TrEMBL record:
Domain of life: Bacteria
Protein name: Uncharacterized protein
Entry keywords, A to Z: Signal
Signal peptide range: 1-24
Gene source species: Saccharophagus degradans (strain 2-40 / ATCC 43961 / DSM 17024)
Amino acid sequence: MVNYLIRKMLFCSLCVVLAASAQADTVKVKGQVMDVMIFASNYQSYSSSDVGLANIYIDSPEMKSPCESGATSGRIAISSDHPLFESVVSMAFIAKTTGKKVEMWHTGTCTLRSSSWDFALIKFAE
């Protein structure tokens, strides 16, 4: 019984450590959605097979210039092939029109666009 409890405690401790390390790579920002821009990944020419992108602009002192790009406004990008794309864009539009603040997390990387953080999570702050 004691061995079982020790193994259970070690397993729980490992889960806590893994969960903390998974969140350590994300950055949380809290603020107002100032704008939402939606466009194709290759917006210079039309293609119906392009991936759509949404940039969500957040007014937050925690928002840094994406990937040292020198961009003057902080923004987080999500692509239309992301399973939560429609939900995230809907929440961003609701936050913008109502003035509600959001908390957004980004991954700390800029793989979708060199001047936009990659999306991780969104929730209403209020």
